[in-house]
Amino acid sequence: MASLTDRSAASAAEPAEANSVVVLDYGGQYSQLIARRVRECGVFSTLLPHHVDVAEVAALHPRGLILSGGPASVYADGAPVLDPALLELGVPVLGICYGMQLLALELGGRVEGAEVGEFGRSQLSVGVSGRLLAHTPEQQTCWMSHRDTVFAAPPGFTALASSTASPVAAFESLERQIYGIQFHPEVVHTPYGQQVLENFLTDICRCDGSWSAASVIEEQVARIRAQIGENGRAICGLSGGVDSTVAALLVHRAIGDRLTCVFVDGGLMRKNEGEQVVSAFRDHFHVPLIAVDAQERFLGRLVGISDPEAKRKVIGNEFIRVFEEEAAKLENARFLVQGTLYSDVIESGGGHGTAVIKSHHNVGGLPADLDFELVEPLRTLFKDEVRAVGAELGLPERFVWRQPFPGPGLAIRIVGGEVTRERLNILREADAILQEEIRGAGLYRDLWQSFCVLPDIRTVGVQGDERTYGNVIVVRAVTSDDAMTADWARLPYDLLEQISRRLINEIRPVGRVVLDITSKPPGTIEWE
Ligand code: XMP
């Protein structure tokens, strides 16, 4: 399998749609992962909710369709159903887990709720490899997660494989170009999963495997030029994170100095972050940049506010207001560049009425009277793909691999109390020490995020025979692929000891250090 960046330049300008598949999300835990694995095979993928109109799928001209897994039983009341029109699009269809069961049910196979479910590692016995399971061994391990089971393939279909609990664990009909697998090819515990996906994408759907994150650059540059036009001007709010940085560089490549970046320092950034961003853009990339010191303004607005959503709203609004003011000084700056990612915009299979867990201010919290047209060149990319694009654009490694940082900044890590300058200073110093130690231990890139949280709690301590009554710092470090799920990082004890010692010794108001050992779910990565 080729890597993200070594696709041939010849295909770079080809629109993604010419070489793409649609993944329909039936609410499965791994739907995003399927979309990513497809992309790793060099095929662009679009993840759409299962209830999408068939016409919308057809409009994308996909070369294949993948139906994801999902949590429901096909027999449950209100369970997502298969629109038979999807099978008439004239492209191959692969059903995975729930997707396979839906196909079996629709086409006259036998699906039953089994007494015993099949969860975790399982042994797959391949009877006939067919096209779907070609180049995989007769006996292989795979990963399953289901209770409903296919007992008989639909008439005219070939049953390809079975497992202990699944009489039909894979089937295909070459005539109808419909394929199904009960196991999950997208997870690492299915060693031949990527081969099965490649068989489907390359041999069955005839995708050419030429898509790459880097190939997006030319395509996006052309799109941006078309959107902004010959004379249009754009403004981009830089946060210092990889997303807004890469978005700005793409737009700069498209329209040059008609892009002006605005870096708003609301006093909520990490230590030295502002200086680094300003110098990288002005001195290294030579992108026009306005740095606005808005600390007083932001902190003024945050007085008396401790509710997390209220904070996000205030900060999001204030950012936009500052942009608007700066844009008004530039002739014709109608466009606002945002580093919105694919994971921010995809609607999960749950679809209607999914709970709002948090309103991320770069997507949900924009004011209704927004006076810009949005330019979002990263809307189709996952985070790791944005990093690949950034590296291709010549972004220095320390930017490419910068850990994600929330738009509202340190404000949402001051929990329970008001965001004051004093608290921000404590948290900023704590964060700097943590980052220094994590980098020193060579762990920075292994962690999705590592940061400190300052809750509104004071605790008693004793230092040099004296009673202290100090602040608590929470150390939070997580590993993750995409922030959808995360595990708390098992940092070495010696490192934790060093971090704790430095935080207390070097920051006077800190009296206690605790470690957050909550994964996501059930927690979220940030505390607010
Ligand atoms: P949670 O806390 O929801 O975070 O598990 C998932 C990822 O999103 C980041 N995050 C935000 N990013 N505005 C942002 O731009 C926000 O309001 C916000 N809240 C959380 C978080 O740092 C993590 O990477």
Question: What would you note in describing this structure?
Answer:
The longest helix has 21 residues. 30% of the residues lie in helices and 24% in strands. The protein is of the alpha/beta class and 528 residues long. Strands 2-1-3-4-9-8-7-5-6 form a nine-stranded mixed sheet, with helices on both faces. Strands 15, 16, 17, 18, 19 and 20 form a six-stranded mixed sheet that branches. The site of xanthosine-5'-monophosphate has 15 residues, from loops.
Question: Quick check: average pLDDT?
Answer: 90
- Unreliable stretches (pLDDT < 50, length at least 5) are 1-14, 351-359, 361-366
CATH topology of the largest domain: Rossmann fold
CATH class of the largest domain: Alpha Beta
Name the strands of the widest sheet in spatial order: 2-1-3-4-9-8-7-5-6
* Structure ligands: xanthosine-5'-monophosphate
Principal-axes shape call: globular
Number of domains: 3
Assign the structural class, choosing from mainly alpha, mainly beta, alpha/beta, alpha+beta, or little secondary structure.
alpha/beta
Helix content: 25-40%
Secondary structure tally: strands: 20
What tags apply to this protein structure?
binds xanthosine-5'-monophosphate, Rossmann fold, disordered N terminus, 24% strand, 9-stranded mixed β-sheet, 6-stranded mixed β-sheet, alpha/beta, GMP Synthetase, Chain A, domain 3, 14 helices, 3 domains, 528 residues
